[in-house]
Amino acid sequence: MVPKIRRFATRVGSNRVGIVGPASVSRVWTGLFDLVHAKMMRRLSGRAAENGLGEGNGADFLIGRRPRGARWGLADSRLAPRRPVDVILAGGVSFARAALVAGALMLAACATPPEDDPIALAEYEANNDPFEPINREIFDINLFLDRILLKPAAQAYVWLFPVEFRDAIHNILTNADEPVNFANAVLQGDAERAATAFGRLAINTTLGVGGMIDVASDLGLEPVEEDFGQTLAVWGIDSGPYLVLPIFGPATVRDGFGRVGDFFFDPLTYVLWNTDKDYIGPSILATTALDLRSRNLDTLDEIERTSVDFYATIRSLYQQRREDLINNGVTLEDEDPFISDPFDY
Amino acid sequence: MLSKGYIARRHVVLGAIGLTIAHKITGGIGAARATPDGAEAFVRNLVDDAITVLRIPTDQKADREAGFRQILLSYFDVPLITRLVVGRYWRRANDAQKQAFSTVFEQHIIKVYTSQLGVYRDERVEVRNVAARTDKDTIVGTEVKRNADPPLRIDWLVRESDGEYRIIDVAAEGVSMMTTKRSEFSSVIARDGMDGLIEQLEALNARGATEFGES
What we know:
The complex is a heterodimer of chains A (about 350) and B (about 220).
Chain A lengths: L1 H11 L10 H28 L8 H4 L21 H26 L8 H10 L4 H29 L2 H14 L1 H10 L3 H16 L8 H4 L9 H7 L7 E4 L3 E4 H13 L1 H7 L6 H15 L2 H9 L4 H17 L19
Helix pairs in contact in A: 2-4, 2-6, 6-14, 7-14, 8-9, 11-12
Chain B lengths: L3 H26 L6 H19 L6 H15 L2 H9 L8 H22 L7 E9 L4 E9 L6 E10 L2 E9 L2 E2 H37 L2
Antiparallel strand pairs in B: 1-2, 2-3, 3-4, 4-5
Helix pairs in contact in B: 1-2, 1-3, 2-3, 3-5, 4-5, 4-6, 5-6
């Protein structure tokens, strides 16, 4: 195990010039990384201490206090990341470690069902969120990351580029996703949606100049959104508990697996595996994140500003939206968006 | 502080909206029994009036807010929504709490709509389909056709009682306002109790007032 970690650490610590700029810029990233890492570890060690995972036992290792003499770990300044890519990779390592702590905490601090209060118990079950305490922690960290990184970046993106350019980027990204929509529509046995996804890909790639212009929508082929999480649901697999994933945000166990599945349905994955230009993948990922966040700047602000419990609001929005996507927006007749409205009180 | 002229102008706008609403409700329904057609006409009227309010520029927050209040009170079954949004905890609340909650919730929901609905940009609203849900409830499915973005699906849950229609829930792209707010509120009640929820809503409303009022 040690050589593997060291190999990765060496890679993370490599001193190549980054995407964003030379060493001076990298130093900013490094500083930022330290800031996030420190905050995250403080929170997690606080949580760990609360739950009796204090100093002097295995938890030290998990929460990133480097055991004396050990040479691994990103807290080691010699291995401090130097490129944006490294920050992301290092973030991944931190989160992997956070996930280990999370796992330990889930066992220790899984929300206890309020057995003695029938109303609270019914709400608890409706929320489908047994990991709420740790989910809230990760939600907070995600919000913090959003505030210092993603949101300012998305604001800069909106400020720098005209809407026509941003729309073109959005269309290209959407078009690149059509194979995933197609594959999942096929797996769900939905011929109509599969044909729509295929038609959109064909039309927009050619007439739409590589996907820049969404000609297909004008021709009546409105976008369909199918992913493997939805496919699993159509196959009858239960959603599993609600989860907040580090960086990626709201999910369920099923949707988490769905993400992995879609990764393999995406032709880009195989293209990227067969190229040595290893900056392309992260660039696409970053652009996707910028596109998504820039399109939700006002909406998310408004929702946060008008919520007494932002976490609970986002959880409900996510759960309802996913349910709607699984049902392909068929709300009348057999599916009813108001099904969970209470009418008996 | 608001100037006198500002208040006067606001009253003119509201008076106009109030009149059209009153006319449509009394003229449109009469003593007829609830029908899907009736519910559809009701939603069409609501949409027309909502567009009138949405045309008010966003910097005139007080006017918009007052317009939304008019619409809320004329088209929505506010007492029922207030009860349902607290969900299972409603029965446990005492009268003082119920009263206090009704007041802050009405204010809150107006804030939500005022801030979440943007300015009207010539979107067209089309009725997609209408379906009876129960003998009293009808779902009216509408689609907001936007110029650049894909159409937005909005479903209205309309309930008829005593020959009058009232909206009890709205869902955008399958996300119901009632379900979302109830989930949020019950989470707060479970943690801080009914009084905690009322306090937090009051604080939120007050924050909104200082943001909107002075500019």
